[in-house]
Design goal:
Blueprint: H1 5-25, H2 36-41, H3 48-59, H4 62-74, H5 81-103, H6 109-116, H7 119-153, H8 157-173, H9 177-206, H10 212-222, H11 245-248, H12 250-261, H13 263-270, H14 275-306, H15 316-321, H16 328-363, H17 369-395, H18 401-409, H19 413-425, H20 431-451, H21 457-478, H22 500-519
Helix pairs in contact: 1-9, 1-16, 3-9, 3-13, 3-14, 3-16, 4-7, 4-14, 4-18, 5-12, 5-14, 5-22, 6-7, 7-8, 7-16, 7-17, 8-16, 8-17, 9-10, 9-14, 9-16, 12-19, 12-21, 13-16, 14-22, 16-17, 19-20, 19-21, 20-21
């Protein structure tokens, strides 16, 4: 079932509005030409609301909306642990990580690694991140986004894939991060509004028009097994979400790596006016993360009653969208497209940032600011083209793309976590220990995958993290100590204090997450 004329009109208004808004908010004052800091870090001028909204817009895309709704359909409410535990992680990032990064005026995560460990670690991780961002993140968002567009609008999937990629690149190409971040408040508003609409209508339909609360109550009674946050060993989905490990195990490693050390996420906070502004931004994002399961997982749960017996779980969200009336379908569809293009634009900008500042600028040290910005724009276009080409070959055969993405990144995140945590909080850590963690993470993860295939991947991440941490500590102690003069980042005297409002917000987030787990344990 395609879109009605009014739906197409709503989508068209959104596309034109967001494109021109991006150009307007990223314009420069007369006589000022964009330099690298303007293009890649928005001139370090982002306010808290733009940071918080942009963090969510970068995070929530087709891989979350389509993939997590699909996992909600298959696994149940337990998949929401990724969102609710992320809210707690964001508080930790704001409290302990951002003061270090902003005090040291960090542009990119590889830059921090070079200043802390040396050029070999920077080069290794820069190349790794470029590969993951293009071949996993960009490709997955394009593929899952095209599935949604095809299912709801009837557009040929490959056509949808190409259009999504090119539009995302086009609206962010001129303005860089500023264009992306300052339009993300619109994107997130549309995402939240669209998600609430589809959730309301789905629950109201389940209750036969008796309201949302009645629909939710009926849903919990119809499929009680889908409302367990902590899965038991006899649950068929235990391997995906292994019980208590989502609270105290490898999921913490995944979240800390993603929210604390992931360039396309942390780049928004690095562009803040100040540490306090960045901290307010991550708190805002934490509250939005608490809301995300209502917007994303709930439609997948509702699909269990509204459209049972789907061929694949990832069809859940598009199928529920089909039930919306004309006009509202266009609005919700625009919200889905907004999430896709916002996340794509974020990743495109981060690919350009890492390639330009961490690789190209080190080879062409004499390059002008204008030249670096031009290179960033060229890289953006190339990254999108590659993502379009490889999307179907890489992801076309997976029925639960969200779980696939989590498992793939889980091969490397334990080592990344070890490298950064030791680099920030243990002065004795050196390059030899860091490289041991990086290589050991991939090798040990693969070995456990082959030799212990029954081990849940979240547990594998936790085991690998502990092993890599021990190995990095031992190697750092055995290898020659890094000279103090070689450590070019400030690690002592960092002000970790936070405002009263930050502390109160953190407490509220903790209480809400605790209440949710107590209710649906």
């Amino acid at each position: 079932m395609g879109l009605a004329t009014i739906d197409i009109a709503v989508l068209g208004v959104y596309a034109v509005f967001i494109f021109f808004l991006a150009q307007w908010v990223s314009r420069e004052k007369a006589g000022h030409e964009k330099n690298a800091k303007d293009y890649f870090l928005a001139g370090r001028s982002l306010p808290w609301w733009a940071i918080g909204a942009s963090l969510i817009a970068a995070n929530i895309s087709a891989e979350q909306i389509i993939g997590m709704a699909g996992s909600g359909y298959k696994v149940g409410l337990a998949i929401a642990c990724y969102e609710w535990m992320a809210a707690l992680t964001l508080i930790l990032v704001g409290k302990f990580f951002l003061p270090i990064f902003l005090e040291n005026q960090i542009y990119t995560m590889p830059q921090f690694l070079e200043q802390r460990y040396g050029s070999s670690v920077r080069l290794t991780l820069a190349v790794f991140w470029l590969g993951v961002y293009v071949f996993v993140n960009l490709a997955s968002i394009l593929w899952l986004g095209s599935i949604a567009v095809n299912a709801v609008a009837g557009v040929d999937q490959m056509t949808a894939l190409v259009v999504l990629g090119l539009f995302s690149c086009a609206y962010s190409l001129f303005g860089g991060l500023k264009a992306v971040a300052l339009t993300d408040i619109v994107q997130v508003t549309l995402l939240v509004l669209g998600g609430l609409i589809i959730g309301y209508l789905a629950l109201n339909q389940i209750s036969g028009g008796q309201g949302v609360l009645a629909g939710f109550h009926q849903l919990t009674l119809a499929v009680p097994e889908k409302f367990q946050l902590i899965l038991t060993r006899d649950n068929p989905n235990y391997k995906d979400l292994p019980g208590i490990s989502v609270l105290v195990g490898g999921l913490w490693v995944m979240n800390v790596s993603y929210w604390g050390f992931n360039q396309y996420i942390i780049q928004r906070a690095l562009a803040a006016k100040s540490v306090r502004e960045a901290q307010k931004g991550v708190v805002f994002a934490a509250f939005l993360k608490l809301l995300m399961p209502v917007i994303i997982v709930l439609p997948g749960l509702a699909a269990l009653l509204l459209v049972p017996n789907l061929a694949t779980p990832d069809q859940a969200y598009p199928e529920v969208m089909k039930m919306l009336p004309a006009g509202l379908k266009g609005l919700v569809f625009a919200a889905l497209v907004a999430a896709i293009v916002a996340s794509l634009a974020s990743k495109i900008n981060s690919v350009a940032t890492i390639f330009t500042l961490d690789l190209y600028a080190h080879v062409k040290k004499e390059a002008s600011q204008h030249h670096l910005v031009a290179v960033g724009r060229i890289v953006s276009v190339v990254a999108v083209i590659i993502g379009i080409v490889v999307a179907k070959p890489l992801l076309g055969n997976f029925d639960q793309a969200f779980q696939y993405i989590q498992e793939f990144t889980g091969f490397f995140t334990p080592g990344i976590c070890v490298i950064f945590l030791l680099g920030m909080f243990w002065p004795r850590a050196n390059a030899a220990g860091a490289l041991t963690a990086a290589i050991g993470s991939a090798v040990l993860s693969l070995a456990l995958k082959v030799w212990l295939p029954e081990l849940p991947f979240i547990d594998r991440v936790g085991v690998t993290f502990l092993a890599c941490l021990a190995a990095a500590v031992v190697v750092s102690l055995v290898a020659p100590a890094q000279q103090v003069s070689q450590i070019k980042v400030k690690l002592k005297g960092i002000d970790y204090s936070t405002s009263t409002s930050f502390n109160l917000a953190a407490l509220v987030v903790l209480v809400i997450v605790s209440a949710l787990y107590i209710t649906w344990w």
